[in-house]
Amino acid sequence: MTTSSSSSKQNISLEEWEGKMAEVPIAKNDLNQLIMNYLIIEGYKDAAEKFSEESGLHSSVDLGSIDERMQIRVAVQSGDIKTAIERVNDLNPDLLDTDPRLYFHLQQQHLIELIRQGKAEEALEFAQDELAPHGEEHPELLRELEKTMALLAFDPSSRSPLAELLDFAHRQKTANELNAALLAAHSQPKEPKLPALLQLLAWTQEQLDEKATYPRINNIVNPVLEEQSGAKETA
Amino acid sequence: MASAQQHVQSVQRLQSPDPVEVYSALRTIKNSIIGSTTKKSLYFKLQIIPHVTSLLALDDTDVQIRVQATAVISSLAHKDEEAARQLLDSGVVGSLIGQIAPGADAALTEASVRALNALLSYESVKLGVEKHVGLMVPYLLSIITEAKDTSRVYEMRAHARIELAILVLGKLCMTEARQYTIANTGVIDMLASLLPCGYPRLQIAALKALSALSYENMEICGALLLVRLKHKTYTEAILDLARNQDPDISLCACMCISNMSRMRTGDLLKDIQTVVVPALVKLLKTPGFSALQVVQSLGYLCHEDADIQLAAKNAGVISELIKILVVIEGQADADFVDQELNMRMVKGVFLTLGTIVSTNEECRRKAVEDQALVYLVRAMGHSDSGVKAAACLCTRYIIRSVSICRTHVPESGILAPLMSLLQDKTADVQVTASATLVNLLTDFSPLRADALKAGLIDILAKLLSSPNSTVCRNVLWSIRNLLVGIDDDTRREIIDKIKIETLFSLSSAPHESFLQEHALGALRNVVVDSMLGINAVFDTMGNNRVIELLRQATRSDAESAIKVHGLYLANNIAVRSQEHCEIIVGDEWLLRSITSHITNSSSEVAIAALWCINSIASHRLPSQGQHESDGESAEDVGTCRYMTELNALDLQATLERMLDDPNLALDVRDRVRSCLDYFPESET
């Protein structure tokens, strides 16, 4: 039952809300596509194959390509940048030649790995021979190089102001950037649609909060429609 | 990390008889050079090209080795145009084409077409592959059709081959002949069918190729208008893509439509204003997207189309362009900024802004409101000549507006930098600076007096001997403008410094009609309303040379613009005094030539000739008391002094016939009537 509270917000009961939701036609195939899209972009090849079998959904994507992409991602995540670069060069030799920023970030990550391993001398030499000339060509990248070089001034085991560069999250960031570039180079979206849809849900609920009291989804991990207190206060 | 010695060894290993060793060396080299310009340079110094190309030239080279060697070539080509030229000169293109022949190994085909795509990124290489085009095009088409047939779903490798082959096809469209060669293969339908495919890389490749095929080619643009996809026309499909969320797709689609805008088709122009212009504005605001390309596309789209220029202004383009200048100025002293890119951007912004304000007063006002003049004046002091030239060009278009010239320009501080650019060391800057000056020296421009005080005439006199004829043309044009509405002191200074003799010799320069036109224009203004000027001309040149010049300028085969200035020069002489008019009328050939132009198909020429006749006819016989000593009868008093000469040319009858012509232009008709006032009314 729809009512109006004193603050002019509309109250919508759980029953009414569910009824309205049931009226919205959602094709199962669309939901399956959404899941498949997530599995492919995130690189869950086995799960994608299984899901394809079970749902009868034929992927429009060559599932074999996921493997190569994932091997590259794993190499970056484990700090083996040289292997990652070699694999990228086998998969798409143009990618690092035409994207100087991405190439720089991979080289920067390699420098970080050398510093992490305490190979200061090798790191210095690598920065001079490989990164500095690249920075000269692309001055907008020099700030990042300076920041990375500053790592050499700190003990890797201590908590330095630049510790974030040594954090696993930085490897993950580099891996994500590379993954996105590989996906784009192969006509795939850089990000799965599912997280964007969840963001849209959050934004929509925020907008709706200003106008109505309704059964909300408060926990995205375990989504349940929760009736808000205002909804019970019927006039 | 490999040392210098290891790189040398890698090159040496390429000559090993062991294929495994060669393969491994190629992989090492490939992984060293990809992404690194320094390493590419190093391997060029180590003479990598002959080693790698010889591997491809041998018939029995293993496919895996070929793939790696081709990838090395591809990466080397990414270095720069010089590197690509060296590769082209090595003859490697022939080997690469051999590797994309139908039936070739798929991985080798992909690597080879990738290398061709990298090589063809440069203008000189695109032109340099002429002899290969005939063989390359069918091979590329076969790659596209074969890969399309074999891949039902997205297959990474097959799609890469299609994409690269399409990109190469597009890059080959460098000349009109090649556009037709490629279009005649039926590729347009094939490319159009890819537009709704949903794979961004293929869509972008197809759009780029279609854009290259139709660039400045109205016939192909016309053919594209007739293409139909499943449920829509080609233009509908492209307009949909112009609205696409992917900025690369949107930009490429806008570029395709821009080509077609040159056809000036009504409906399409409306779509451009409502869809394409807003799409480009959106791209201009998209963070991280190449604004330079968008700015250049907007410039191309707005070229010579006042409606699109106004639509661009209404969509906020001018403000967005100025915002870019603000950001770049803020980064002027920053360390971590690509200043080279910023410089190209500033140049692009000025050129596009110049195009947008070139015809429309409203656009000019908006640019001035947004402080464009401030940035333009500052840019005139830039270190790069391209930026200075672009700033001058944009300024030139803005100050076409009389009201802006009168109000905003004087306080902008433009005069000093512009005058200094007149003497810039580069010809491009001199050309655009002198072209801008032309608009600043009109009689309504408040800056004219300041320019004269600042020694402008000396500068102009010096520039008149420039080896660059466009600079000379602009200087003559400036002198022309300067001579209108000035006092005799300034006129004398101009005559003394520029020299009548110089203007005469340029007026009769037979092979440079654009100099001739403006030199005649300047002479015409030297003598206008000034006895000082007319005396200077006749004293310097003598009657015969003046008449000879007028004869040349009014010849039937002279260009219209020259005829117009010649006729007005004759008019300005004839109107000055009876003595001067006598010189004109006394030359029967010249008088006949002037009279013949009153029926010229160009109204401008006809009006100039009619003014001249008008001036000649305006000299009347003296009034009673004066005329007796001249031996003229009383009944002639007040009539046209040269009636006999004019009637001998059947002028009155010609003028009357002209009035009977219902198609006579109104402004010509007015002049004819005015001339006829000097003749007695016909008895009929």
From TrEMBL, chain A:
Question: Pfam families, alphabetically?
Answer: CTLH (PF10607), LisH (PF08513)
InterPro entries, per this entry?
CRA_dom, CTLH/CRA, CTLH_C, LisH, Ubq-SigPath_Reg
The species is Coemansia spiralis
Lineage, uppermost ranks: Eukaryota, Fungi, Fungi incertae sedis, Zoopagomycota, Kickxellomycotina
- Residue ranges of domain CTLH in the record: 65-122
So which domain of life are we looking at?
A: Eukaryota
Question: SMART domains given for it?
Answer: CRA, CTLH, LisH
- In its UniProt entry, what is this protein called? CTLH domain-containing protein
From TrEMBL, chain B:
Highest taxon of the lineage: Eukaryota
Output this protein's name: Uncharacterized protein
